[in-house]
Amino acid sequence: MSVDTRHPEYADRAPEWKEMRDTSRGARAVKEEGETYLPMPSGYRAQGDGGTRMYGAYRIRAQFPEIVAPTVRGMIGVIHRTEAQIEMPDAMLGLWERATADGLALEAFHRRITSELLLTGRYSILADAASTGSELPFLAGYSAEALINWSADRDFYVLDESGLKREGFEWRDQKRFRVLQLVEGRYEVERYEGTEKEGDTLQPVAQGNKALDAIPFVVIGPLDLSVSPTEPPLIGVARAALAQYRLDADYRHQLYMSGQETLVIINGDAPEAIGAGVVITLHSGTGEDGKERTPDAKYVGPQGTGIEAHRTAIQDERENAVSAGARLFDSAKKAAESGEALKLRYAAQTATLTSIAQASAQGLEKALRFIAIMLGQDPMKVVVKPNLDFLDSTLDPQAATALVTMWQNGAISYATMYENLQRGEIASAERTAEEEQAQIDKEDVDSDPVEAGLLDRSA
């Protein structure tokens, strides 16, 4: 077995990932795939060139609806409308500004995770050691297509790191793979160029030269941290877009043909030219049977009876695309729905925005905890709380005043009040209740001229 062998579940989901990538890139990517997404009408193949020219015109006239990428961007905006609350040990604070090897900030990396989950339903993160001991470990993200093989026991992963490599002013494809595995309870890394192993096996360690007993690698899905790939959450939107594309091709072909009327000459000779400025003269004559033939000339063309039906079908597919995207917002329990019914409904439907936001945060949290272990820090001090308020929940002044009054009267705790102020986007999402109280105390001291040392209390 070669290092580039694909897991059977990878082969099963890869066509869906490609479908999502192509539809997200838009019309150019979809049309470049030719008959993969737009079959050639059977009548075209009877042409001398196999229908190449006619199919080319048929494909060019068709319009692909650009709805997948805007849907993904819109949902990212909804999920990350307010930043997630992330707590880390002080030794890890440098990750806020530089979380990845290419300098991506932590919040931007979090958005990338969510984007990939929406698009393909899978993303992986490796907590990787820096090249020098003085630097922080960093987070390396891998798309669904990059994780090509794995074990259900999470003790073996193969990552495809192939890509372009610059040589002077030119670029060439380079096949590279990384193998992560646990061998006798110890984390090991192997690198391959092509299918040949490159260099020695590495055994990354935590601070203090302590061996790692788990692979610092996290696989994230749209529902949880399961290693098995699932259906992309927005596959329904992509398929509706492709259905519109095929319907639009037939619709525009009918429009084109209905405008291409053909001149028919009855009982006369065909003219050398037709069009504006050309005069066509027809002469009556006698046929072979001796009977007089009356000449005639007329334009005939298709009736276009299916045009309206195609227009209706396209509108239906647009509604299907909207419905497919709207299902992600359906996270509320239906009225009078039992717990078992709710469980079955969620097992049968795709991911929701809530589950995607939670999985994205859980995956990031677990990856950051691996970095904490590598730095000799307490991993439980790493906490990532996602934003789950997807609609505008800003508190108005009256509601905020009522909330503070309830706290002052002892009806709720300070922590409860502060959590509601955070959800209402009044208090900072980046500070805990304790940190906010410390900030208040500091401002009280700074504003007191005695405490600030500007005035002698005994004076």
Apparent shape: elongated
The count of helical stretches stands at 12
- Judged by helices, strands and strand pairing, the structural class is alpha+beta
Query: What is the helix fraction of residues, given as a range?
Result: 25-40%
Measured distance between first and last alpha carbons: 87 Å
Overall average residue pLDDT = 82
Q: What summary fits the major beta sheet? A: 5 strands, antiparallel
The stretches of 5 or more residues where confidence is low (pLDDT under 50) are: 342-350
The succession of helices and strands, N to C, reads: HHHHEHEEEEEEEEEEEEHEEEEHHHEHHH
Strand order of the largest sheet: 4-5-8-9-10
CA-based gyration radius: 33 Å
Question: What is the number of beta strands?
Answer: 18
Query: How large is the share of residues in beta strands?
Result: 15-25%
